[in-house]
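Marked as duplicate of an earlier ticket. Keeping the data here for the record.
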Amino acid sequence: MTHSPNLVLTVRHPADSVAVLTVTGEIDVDSAPALRTKAMELIRQGRPHIVLDMAPVEFCDSSGLNTMIGILRYAKDRHGSLSLVATPPHVTRLLDVTGVGVLMPVLPTAAEALEGIVTPGGHGTA
C-alpha cells in the first residue's frame, strides 16, 4: 500500500501480468506523482496490464489525466495496457469532456477489465 497526503494506493495481482491498483482519495498535482511511480513500478516488475479501480476517487484534475496518459504510454511501450474501472461520475465527465476516455477502456468493473485482458482479443495474456 502506498500513501500520499491525499491518496492511498492498494494493489492486488489477480493474474501474472496484471495489477489492479485501487486509487482512493484525490489525484492532483501533489498526489499524481505517487500514482505514476507506483504504476510504472508495477509495469517494470512484469505487470504491464494495469487496471485502475477509480471507485474511491474523490477528485481528479488535469494532473491526474496527464498521469493516466503517461501510464498508458509506458504500458503500451512494454506491450501492456491501462484500463479504468468504476469511474465516479465526476471523473467520467472529465474523461469525456477532455477526450481522454477514448484513449483507454473505461469499464464498470475490474472483473470486466480482467476478462478483456486474459481472453483472446483482449489486451494480452495474463
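See parent ticket for discussion. The chain is about 40% helix and 30% strand.
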